[in-house]
Amino acid sequence: MLHTKVSQFEDIIDQALTTALEDKTPQLVSFVEQIDYQNPYVFFHNGVKVDQHRVFWKSAEEDFLMVGVGSANKMFTSGADRFQNLQTAWNELREKAIVSDGYKQKGTGVVALGGFSFNSGNLKEAPWEKFPDSQMTIPCFLLTNYHHVSYLTINAVIYPEDHKQQILNQLLEQEELLFHGQDFTPHIPERIRAEEQDPEGWKSSVKQATEDIKAGLLDKVVLARELKVNFKEDVHIAAVLQELAAKQANSYLFAIESEGAYFIGATPERLAKVEDKTLVSTCLAGTIPRGRNEDEDLRLGKQLLHDRKNRQEHEFVVQMIRDAVDACCYDVEIPSSPVLYPLRNLQHLYTPVRATLQTGYTLLDVIERLHPTPALGGMPQHTAIDYIKANERMDRGWYAGPVGWMDRQNNGEFAVAIRSALIQGKKASLFAGCGVVEDSDPQSEYEETAVKLQPMLSVLGG
Ligand SMILES: C=C(O[C@H]1C=CC=C(C(=O)O)[C@@H]1O)C(=O)O
Ligand SMILES: [Mg+2]
């Protein structure tokens, strides 16, 4: 921290101490400075010297990335009201915060990063014991890279009994650790085993789902499966993130730590983004591989655009998102037919959604209404959720749940945590699912999920 900045920082600690003493409650302070450009993977790597708790977010569409280290505060909410309870806790925190910020860039200052499990309130089964129903962290140190400029936010909670010099010394020491040592050797772990969980059983549950759909039980359901992987050594999370960033364009990258386990992924699917009053959402469902050459790629893309089964998978998502967005927005814009969304090894049907939020609604309200969309759950929403609980034979944990961030102005963005893995030391569980409709073929759906497992598998042992 520059010397001039230290005195500004001292000022807000003084202010916070006064308020904390008057109100007899802890006080959140937030200090933002522009710094020399930082490599986010090195920052993430160095972060562990300060705190094991680290979070990471990279946008799919613009040069915008955040790395959080430590936590000034963590918000946990659970049960059916977890989104609303989080909003209440968040409002209290952000309104009371004392902020020193001369830049006002998005994703700086009082920012919360984290996510939610797919289902709320269920008992956590292996391997999800270390992940709560929801967790949103206000990092102690937050690096924000936006349009190739780096900002560092320091967030701290000041208690009435704190001493200014002590707080200052500790934060400056930690800051030194974060910026000390400028590189690490990228190391992809050696895989010693990859074990599918009963593939034949999974295919028969897809078959059964098509029969239940034909029988009128529901219209669509997304069924997922797990791949368990073991490595020779502990997985180096910073290296995995760096590899994912190099390989997976058009994807959101995220990593969230909880009790030493890391949930990490490269997902193409936005759930909702709010900037000022503009809401953007994404309908992404319907899948085909990329071609091995341009001709094959075009042919496959065309095939996907005209395939009845994939169009049906997609249409359920558009319908549901349209209804949910109509209820809390105006000026809703949704094109009448999808276009292709290309990824490294597969392509999806994509329909963008844009609207203006009605006054009084927040990003979390929208997420509560949307989650899970039929791209992750099914149609009708609640029937599909129950169907998944009864038939999927695994605990989804945070797979397909909302992950993302929000700032003090209630702007922010959440994606859905698909193409993801839960990593614990030398072990990982990878997850992928697919939309099942009446015309689904179990073998093709199985192959589709195999392709969806590839992005994570390719950075976890090659
Ligand atoms: C549920 C997943 O993908 C969804 C997103 C895009 C396309 C999908 C599909 O075509 O089945 C899925 O709905 C996953 O990757 O685990
Ligand atoms: Mg599909």
Sum this structure up briefly.
The strands form 2 sheets. Strands 1, 2, 3, 5, 8, 9, 10, 11, 12, 13, 19, 22 and 23 form a 13-stranded mixed β-sheet that branches. Strands 4, 6, 7, 14, 15, 16, 17, 18, 20 and 21 form a 10-stranded antiparallel β-sheet that branches. This protein folds into 2 domains: 3-179, no CATH class; 192-251 and 268-459, Anthranilate synthase (4-Layer Sandwich), CATH 3.60.120.10. It is built from 11 helices and 23 strands.
Task: Identify the notable features of this structure and list them briefly.
462 residues; alpha+beta; Anthranilate synthase; 2 domains; ten-stranded antiparallel beta sheet; 11 helices; binds the ligand C=C(O[C@H]1C=CC=C(C(=O)O)[C@@H]1O)C(=O)O; binds magnesium ion; IsoChor_synthase
Provide a descriptive summary of the structure in words.
By secondary structure, the chain is α+β, with helices and mostly antiparallel strands. It folds into two domains: 3-179, no CATH class; 192-251 and 268-459, Anthranilate synthase, CATH 3.60.120. It is built from eleven helices and 23 strands. It has helices spanning 3-23, 40-47, 82-96, 164-179, 199-214, 237-247, 294-306, 308-326, 363-370, 381-391, 442-459; strands spanning 27-35, 54-58, 64-69, 73-75, 98-100, 111-116, 134-138, 141-146, 149-158, 191-196, 220-231, 252-258, 261-267, 270-275, 278-289, 329-333, 339-342, 346-357, 378-379, 402-407, 412-416, 420-424, 427-436. The strands form two sheets. Strands 1, 2, 3, 5, 8, 9, 10, 11, 12, 13, 19, 22 and 23 form a 13-stranded mixed β-sheet that branches. Strands 4, 6, 7, 14, 15, 16, 17, 18, 20 and 21 form a ten-stranded antiparallel β-sheet that branches. α2 (40-47) runs antiparallel to α6 and α3 (82-96) runs antiparallel to α9. The protein is globular and about 70 Å long. The mean pLDDT is 96. It binds the ligand C=C(O[C@H]1C=CC=C(C(=O)O)[C@@H]1O)C(=O)O and magnesium ion (MG). The site of magnesium ion (MG) has 6 residues, from β15 and β23.
